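INFO batch 0412 | record 1 of 1 | parsing
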Amino acid sequence: MKRFSTLLSGSWLLVLLAACSGPPERDPQTIFRYNESAGIGSLDPAFARNQAHIWAVHQLFNGLVQMDDQLRVKPAIAQRWEVRDSGHTYRFYLRDDVYFHADPCFDSLAQRQVTAPDFVYSFDRLTSEALAAPGAWVFKNVAGYRAVNDTILDIRLKQPFSPFLGLLTMKYCSVVPREAIEKYGSDFRRHPVGTGPFRFKRWVENELLVFRRNERYFERDVKGNRLPYLEAVAISFVPDKQSAFLGFLKGELDLLSGLDGSYKDELLTHDGRLRKRYQDRFLVYRQPYLNTEYLGFLVDSNARAAEGSPVLNRKIRQAINYCFDRERMIRYLRNGIGTPAHGGMIPAGLPAYDTSRIQGYHYDPQKARRLLREAGYPGGKGLSPIKLVTNSSYRDLCEYIQAEAQKVGIPLEVEVTPPSTLRQGKATAKLPLFRASWIADYPDAENYLSLFYSQNFAPEGPNYTHFSDPTYDSLYRRARGTLNDSLRRRLYQRMDQRVIEQAPVVPLYYDQVLRFYPKHVHDLGGNALNLLTLKRVWKSDAG
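INFO prediction complete | emitting tokens
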């Protein structure tokens, strides 16, 4: 705890800020502090592929458009846009008051205005083979783009794709200045220059990251006041979540995100309510999170790892889906945080989620036993052990499913492996049964259904189960080219039902955004993508 307190103490941080730029102009209590236990390796938006990096990059960079708390696409650097040519062309009209952060890379200019050619450069960089950015796939359906002039940008698609604007809200699509890339090269990852509400100030890797308020940020509140309200953001990197939790209780952090086994029972009752001893100090923010937790079966009979595997039998896969109680799992292992996955892969929070139209799996051990008999394994007799691979964070859930499966005769064995090994095993089709998560990159059900399109086999795509079904593929292609929202939603639901019937996965639960914060922190909202937006956050005197 000593290291944690030293990093986040107000006096230490004020010394750092003063050393960097003189005495702070605002009350030092307008510093917002949070811990990132997963660490951050880059502040380059082209590599913002997970939540830890997205949260940090989101404070520093902007794109053409942005997502609000209701998952609606709103203007950002583009003040408006037009959709032309039956959905093939998007024309964006840029603001003329957006500037990059002041940086030595701009020679004689303290700051430089953003123009349409900056987006052309940024998109060229994102999609270049030399950079090998993980976000290059965003432009897979893009036929081309051009700057009509300094304030007009055209993007042409190969085929219409209704969720395209949602794709453009991803941090991969942020604008970056050519001058900074040319000056810093690969070191741009730790010397970012963006347009966001905060600007980079100092990074002591594995210890502390500090952003300062961008005094010339272009967005304002409804009263005309320039955003953001905070003076600074400080991010610590304490890997132990129990230590971070204790720091939060001591007032050294302004945010505790998610639910960890080391403190879940201390903070929450089994039905998800904040315990009385903390109700006078903290608030809890909850909402659906576009994250589906599931088990995946390797259903490719051509994959070496699947040879002779019982999971190639659909009835075995269905039996596992029926053998455990999702409500009980959520209540006692998740303290009520999450929605039992009685639908398919499309999570609560998306318009296509509808359990009245999508009939998923419920707890039915008798049906699980019947399916085992039909598969030729009455009571599990003769059934080879099935290895379920997970990481330590989900060990308790997997061991619960293991115990329930064994009650009906399914010999599950749980193997705990490091997260990197699990990811590699999924990507290379070496795991017959694995635990996984799918967090939406953009708020459209296509994001989840792409996991089962036969052209997306891992490692080239996200189809880790190697599921292949001609009927599904036909529906998928049809949905991608459909601009009518209601028709596309019905196609999505038919596809999700097809996944349930074929059972390449075991949907476990649909996650929830969960944030704890002190009562003196205000306007810390969120959306179903679990994006951390700090430009409107403010702290009262009690902070």
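INFO post-check: Residues 485-502 form the longest helix (18 residues).
INFO record closed
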